Amino acid sequence: MIITTRRTALFAGASLLAAPGLVRAQGAPIRLGTLTPLTGAGGPYGPVMANCVKSVVSDVNAAGGVLGRQVAVVSEDDQTNPEAGVRAARKLIDVDRVAAIMGTWASAVTTAVAPLCWESKTFLATVSGADSITALPHSGWLIRTQPNTTLQGRKFGEYAVELGAKKVFFMAPQTPFTQSQLANMKPPIDRAGGSIELLIYDATKPSLRTEVDQVLRARPDLIVLGGYTPDTTVLLRDIFRAGFRGKLLAYAYSVNQQMLSSLPNDVTEGIYTLAPSPAEGSGGFDRVKRIVGNDNPDPYTCQIYDQINLILMAMAVGNDATGQGIRDNIRKVSQGGGDRVDNAVDGLRAIAAGKKVDYDGASGPCDFTDAGDITDCKFRYEQVRAGRQTLIRIA
Amino acid sequence: MIEALLQALINGVIAGTILAVPALGFTAIFAVLNYPNFAIGALATVGAYAGWVGNTALGLPMVAALALAFAATAVAGLVVQWAAVKPLESAGALMMAIASLAAGLVLENALRFGFGNDLRGYDLPLLRDWRFGEFRVGPQQVQNFALALAAMGLLWAFLRYSRTGRAMRAVADNRDLALLRGVDPARVAAVTVAVGAGLAGMGGMLVGLDTSVDPLVGTRLVLSIFAAAVLGGLGSIPGAVAGAIAIGVAEEVAVLAFNPAYRLVVGFVVILAVLTLRPAGLFGARAS
């Protein structure tokens, strides 16, 4: 009996050593992290984003993984708060040893987390918009799928002019993009002979009556709302109570369906919103629709879908599952011509067949500058009518 | 400029009166149990959600929803007290304060787990403000102001005329003497926690009525509540009211003088100044 047991053990040990590399490697999955806001102002988006990544990875694992290894996703909550974001990023980097972190949402969180990533050679893919993020000395360790504030600010300024505004007031909490948003809104408004002023408010204040009084004293004909959903809700109530009859223009991520269902229709009626538009009608967009189970997935979920697909393919094309491998190879799969793919399963198959791929995703073409910004993006212009976002145009 | 100042004063007095309700709860618990209960923010959130459920799911009118907010938060406050704070009573006030802070985080996240992060609005029409020349006041503000005054009036009558209320004041004034007179300290502590937490819940609901309800609605108030209680004198009931109104006015008037982004500084500066110049606060004697 003892002999049998010993033989069995020896046999088992020898078999393990003799097993093909693939089988042993499957014991050590490639680890990737999502750091999305599951709570706080970004709370409506983060859980959907994290689930989207898991769904893409599950499809890839079912098709054999990447470089013969399975992929594991570790999801952490940045609480839409830089301090919590840094703690969660430290855990992902030091404990889970992820090769990449995806999905940081608030610009303040991304700004805080980015240095940890480049110092530890962890790749960072973000959906934050502040100009300052890609201006950080990240040496290629960071990409973003969200258009920067220069582009967004200019679009807001041009749209304010198109809406006939001469006197614009920009009300926003203090964020890393507030100043650059204002600076980029100003030129189109100035050119049209108008003017714009800024009031920065405290986003945690339960009432913004006095701030609204300050703004209305300047008699603006259009107010741009630059906050997140909770503070914009407070602001809209106070603007309505104050009897403002001018136009309102806001980010679509703050005036979202969740806000529209929490406020009476007459408070939100007529608000114009602007948002980077996902690539509606594309194969990637249709896949995201199926993953999230609705026909109108938010732009951030579309963007993180693109991030995970690009990262998985970059590892495969570089034959390197580390952060360094992703950094060095992501542009080889995102741009430069080749077989058009909109998902990693098809992309990995093409790469295995020795083909060059060029990914076009759910959020857009996903081509990046050296600084990490996307080169092209469409915007979605909408207006709230009877408590629902109504599409005006995509341009 | 004068109009702007007067309008800010009106806004500040109304905001301060609403802030006074949870500040009263905070200071009452401090007076009797001698520790700052930092779960007060999460308790205010419990009240905001309880009132919201009462109003939207059960169809209760405002006053009944407010009573439900009080009752639900009183129970939540007692659970926090018995489960988290009381076991650490012998470790001192600091440990009790930390325990309450931790219990507050648990409560806040339990609410988030149950209700999600979505913003919730009460089933109330939003009305435009009444205008009086250059000034304006909101009907909801006036209603909340009246409800806050009524809550404070009821608390005053309870402390002044009821046997339990008198026992609470006796323990707050001189615990040993009260014990000698046969006051049951466990009962007084329980009633104080229930009333204090209930007031926090009412305050949370009043703020939720004016804005909207989310898991952080009460947490955003904690600094202002603490600053109000410190300014009035920790443990002083009239002090909490005066402190809250002063903080409410200061926060609104500060908007005219400084960049509104620095509003939080008001609370910190008040706490710093009071602790430096008059640690007992405006009305407090015990705190010194």
Overview of this structure, please?
The complex is a heterodimer of chains A (395) and B (288). Chain A contains 16 helices and 14 strands. In chain A, the strands form three sheets. Chain A has a seven-stranded mixed beta sheet with strand order 7-6-8-9-10-13-14, with helices on both faces. A five-stranded parallel beta sheet of chain A has the order 2-1-3-4-5, with helices on both faces. A two-stranded parallel sheet of chain A has the order 11-12. Chain A is elongated and about 65 Å long. The termini of chain A are far apart. By secondary structure, chain B is mainly α. Chain B has one domain: ABC transporter involved in vitamin B12 uptake, BtuC. In chain B, strand 1 and strand 2 form a beta hairpin. The longest helix of chain B is centred in the first third of the chain and has 32 residues. The chains are: A alpha/beta (395), B mainly alpha (288). At the A-B interface, strand 7, helix 9, helix 10 and helix 11 of A face helix 1 and helix 10 of B.
Briefly say what this structure is.
The complex is a heterodimer of chains A (395) and B (288). Chain A is 46% helix and 19% strand.
